[in-house]
Design a protein that fits this description.
Layout (H helix, E strand, L loop, with lengths): L1 E5 L5 H11 L4 E5 L3 H7 L11 H8 L4 E4 L2 H7 L2 E4 L19 H12 L5 E5 L7 H12 L7 E5 L9 H6 L4 E5 L3 H14 L8 E5 H32 L3 H9 L20 H14 L3 H28 L8 E5 L14 H11 L3 E5 L5 H9 L21 E3 L3 H5 L4 E4 L11 H7 L5 E4 L6 H7 L2 E4 L6 H6 L1
This protein binds uridine-5'-diphosphate-xylopyranose and adenosine-5'-diphosphate (ADP).
Length: about 475
């Protein structure tokens, strides 16, 4: 058997590497139009940072795992084609700012159709709106000249989270396969199920109809994001009332019906999925006339935006209502720890908010390159998901400095903002950093990871999200 995957990104790369590792009898080829990305996958400096990924790639690469730009050859030879290309939010036209832009998906489908001489199973791996499979099916069947070639489309959403992708792929809670309830649809589901059963117990491989699988992916992400917006809403109330959001989260999390995961108040959720999937969900609701349902889910995104704005206002308000020409050290730019990914990271909006008020942001992240930070700070909303978007001129860039280390970023700074929960931030010598800073020196912990009592002992004025406010900050308000 041969598997090809179109799109060598955060989903396609790790997922195919795991399939290749666990199924040595299957040849797996990962394809991309981006040559630089493919070259990186073929080197020991992979294009994405993911703990444990390099070891998995090295174990299978050259044996039954290959990375290539030769899409036509490998698609024509494959029995199963996974499609894992980007699905950006539309930036213009009908549904701008909400609907999914399926240009890349459609391009992949046309390429599959024109290179297929035998029947194939096509697997949706990227998040797409409900009923995409239907549209893609039409593109495939109308563009393939050989009438004997049949395409069976499956939806097999990926639930891996970045930073823990390898564990998630090795031992997933479940694998979901959606397909048509026809003899050929059931046969295709069975074929894909057998691939996963090489390492995943069969009771964890769930099957359902196509639309359920597509909708389950959007719903899972909407529910997860909703928990974060819910606890973030409570964090604002905690600050006003003197309650402590971590204590509230702990108390509610011990109720087994609620559970203790995804209850960390934060400066906001980021990542390539949550906002995009919720906007998709809202758009699908609107298009079928469910305005109230769309508005309900849209609140999850609004609350996330509110949390980022609220954080910026706290920083500016605490620093005597002006950050003009003040250096602010930004600790962490990735959307979460253990990844170099910055897609939709709250750091972009927070830094832009501070810069609007004249701040100079000195950004340090152990895994994000200066080039990426410059690109992100100059990219208009929703443009990040277009391949090869490049740095453009932006007034924000004038106020961005890159810290070569955290120590470098804090030199002469008035404040530190913690925006990513990297473990190493906990162990810094904050006393030495304090000495290097302008006074009063502030710490704004947007992730609640630091030892706030210790920081206060050193002399810092500390704002911790969702915690009772320092007397100093109360006076300012
Ligand atoms: C998410 C889903 O978890 C995954 O199943 C899906 O396939 C893709 O989208 P990912 O975006 O990689 O994965 O990261 P996730 O761990 O879900 O975190 C998303 C964002 O929420 C991050 O910015 C994170 O910092 C934030 N978060 C998470 C919180 O603010 N608080 C929490 O309690 C948990
Ligand atoms: P994800 O997080 O969903 O994996 P990425 O943006 O990391 O998304 O990866 C998507 C990849 O798909 C990109 O590397 C992009 O170059 C690739 N891609 C998009 N369209 C095509 C196509 N028609 N053929 C091959 N690769 C494509």
């Amino acid at each position: 058997m041969k598997i090809a995957c179109i799109g060598a990104g955060y989903v396609g790369g790790p997922t195919m590497a795991m399939i290749a590792l666990k199924c040595p009898h299957i040849e797996v080829v990962v394809l991309d139009i981006n040559e630089e990305r493919i070259n990186a996958w073929n080197s020991d400096t992979l294009p994405i940072y993911e703990p444990g990924l390099l070891e998995v790639v090295q174990a299978a690469r050259g044996r039954n795992l290959f990375f290539s730009t030769d899409t036509s050859k490998h698609i024509s030879e494959a029995d199963i084609v996974f499609v894992s290309v980007n699905t950006p939010t539309k930036t213009s036209g009908i549904g701008a700012g909400k609907a999914a832009d399926l240009t890349y998906w459609e391009g992949a489908a046309r390429m599959i159709a024109s290179n297929s001489k035998s029947s194939k199973i096509i697997v949706e791996k990227s998040t797409v709106p409900v009923k995409t499979a239907e549209a893609i099916g039409k593109v495939l069947s109308r563009n393939c000249s050989d009438p004997s070639v049949q395409f069976e489309i499956l939806s097999n959403p990926e639930f891996l989270a970045e930073g823990t992708a390898i564990q998630d792929l090795m031992k997933p809670d479940r694998v979901l396969i959606g397909g048509s309830d026809t003899p050929s649809g059931r046969a295709a589901i069975k074929a894909l199920k057998e691939v996963y059963e090489n390492w995943i117990p069969s009771e964890r491989v769930l099957t359902c109809n196509l639309w359920s699988a597509e909708l389950a992916k959007l719903t899972a992400n909407a529910f997860l994001a909703q928990r974060i917006s819910s606890i973030n809403a409570i964090s604002a109330l905690c600050e006003e009332t003197g309650a402590d959001v971590q204590q509230v989260a702990h108390a509610i999390g011990t109720d087994s019906r609620i559970g203790n995961k995804f209850l960390n108040a934060s400066v906001g959720f980021g990542g390539s999925c949550f906002q995009k999937d919720i906007l998709n969900l809202c758009y699908v609701c609107e298009t079928v006339g469910l305005k109230e349902v769309a508005e309900y889910w849209y609140q999850v995104v609004s609350m996330n935006d509110h949390q980022k704005n609220r954080f910026v206002e706290r920083v500016i308000g605490s620093m005597f209502n002006s950050v003009k020409n003040k250096k602010v050290a930004i600790f962490g730019f990735a959307f979460k720890k253990d990844t170099g990914d910055t897609r939709e990271t709250p750091a972009i909006d927070v830094c832009k908010g501070l810069i609007q008020d004249g701040a100079i942001c000195a950004i340090y992240d152990p895994e994000v390159s200066p080039e990426m930070i410059f690109r992100d700070m100059s990219t208009p909303k929703f443009e990040w998901d277009k391949p090869n978007y490049t740095k453009s001129a932006s007034r924000f860039l004038e106020n961005v400095l890159i810290g070569s280390s955290a120590e470098d970023a804090v030199k002469g700074a008035h404040a530190i903002c913690v925006l990513t929960e990297w473990d190493r931030f906990k162990d810094y010598d904050y006393k030495a950093m304090y000495e290097q800073m302008s006074k009063p020196a502030f710490v704004f912990d947007g992730r609640n990871i630091l030892d706030h009592d210790k920081l206060r002992e050193i002399g810092f004025i500390v704002y911790a999200l969702g915690k009772p406010l320092d007397p100093f900050l109360q006076k300012v308000y």
